[in-house]
């Protein structure tokens, strides 16, 4: 939690506004939190809603600096957190890059991916998606409702899975023979 400085007009109509950054964990971003923070105007209890976006600025009216015979200024808190290593957060959606081998792309299969899970205390869970037979390189699969929670009761975002087909650089003799037979067919 760090200060970003002060703001305010030349002819004050209220106390000075305060600007801070609050660094939180991913699970706090998913579920929200209530916290008492120490700022220049004293201790303030704040509530961060679940589903808050990284870089969002939240205004707490009247929680800034007091001024004589004037209303208090406002408190502005910018939220900062890191995306989990499993995916990247883009607005309310998450983007997952998943490598699959060429056999899975050709034959199809089910794979497991990490998603936002509102039932898991960490905020991250697993789900399976189907890879259809004949999946081409750079195919995207949309999984609805597995992204960040909606703000103020809005719908949960989606998960976009970017499939990257990995071609092996080396094959053993048996693999090479099977591929050569396939090529002849």
Structure characteristics:
four-stranded mixed β-sheet, 185 residues, 3 helices, rod-shaped, mainly beta, single chain
Write structural notes for this entry.
The structure is a single chain. This protein has 185 residues and is mostly beta strands. The chain is built from 3 helices and 12 strands; from the N terminus they run E-E-H-E-E-E-E-E-E-H-E-E-E-E-H. It has helices spanning 26-31, 102-107, 173-184, and strands spanning 2-7, 17-23, 33-39, 42-48, 57-60, 75-80, 88-90, 93-101, 109-116, 124-131, 139-143, 159-166. Strands 1-2-6-5 form a 4-stranded mixed β-sheet, with no helix packed on it. Strands 7-8-12-11 form a 4-stranded mixed β-sheet. Strands 3-4 form a two-stranded antiparallel sheet. Strand 9 (109-116) and strand 10 form a beta hairpin. The N and C termini lie far apart (64 Å).
| Total number of helices | 3
Termini Cα gap: 64 Å
Strand content: 35-45%
Spatial ordering of strands, largest sheet: 1-2-6-5
Q: What does the largest sheet look like?
A: 4 strands, mixed
Mean pLDDT: 91
- How many whole angstroms does the radius of gyration measure? 25 Å
Order of helices and strands: EEHEEEEEEHEEEEH
The share of residues in helices is 10-25%
User: Could you say which structural class the secondary elements and strand pairing correspond to?
Assistant: mainly beta
- What characteristic shape results from the CA principal axes? rod-shaped
Low-confidence regions: none
Q: What is the β-strand count? A: 12
Short description:
With 185 residues, the chain is mainly beta. The protein is built from three helices and twelve strands; from the N terminus they run E-E-H-E-E-E-E-E-E-H-E-E-E-E-H.
């Amino acid at each position: 939690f760090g200060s970003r400085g002060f703001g305010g007009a030349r002819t004050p109509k209220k106390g000075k506004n305060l600007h801070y950054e609050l660094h939180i964990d991913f699970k706090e971003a998913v579920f929200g939190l209530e916290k008492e923070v120490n700022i220049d105007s004293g201790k303030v209890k704040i509530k961060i809603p679940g589903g808050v976006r990284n870089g969002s600025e939240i205004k707490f009216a009247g929680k800034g600096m007091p001024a004589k015979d004037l209303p208090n200024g406002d408190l502005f808190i910018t939220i900062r957190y890191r995306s989990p290593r499993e995916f990247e957060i883009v607005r309310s959606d998450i983007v997952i890059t998943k490598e699959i081998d060429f056999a899975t792309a050709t034959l199809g299969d089910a794979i497991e991916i990490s998603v936002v899970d509102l039932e898991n205390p960490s905020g991250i869970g697993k789900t399976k998606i189907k890879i259809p037979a004949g999946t081409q390189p750079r195919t995207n699969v949309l999984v609805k409702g597995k992204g960040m929670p909606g703000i103020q009761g809005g719908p949960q975002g989606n998960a976009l899975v970017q499939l990257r087909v990995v071609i092996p650089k080396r094959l053993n003799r048996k693999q090479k023979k099977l591929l050569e037979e396939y090529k002849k067919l």
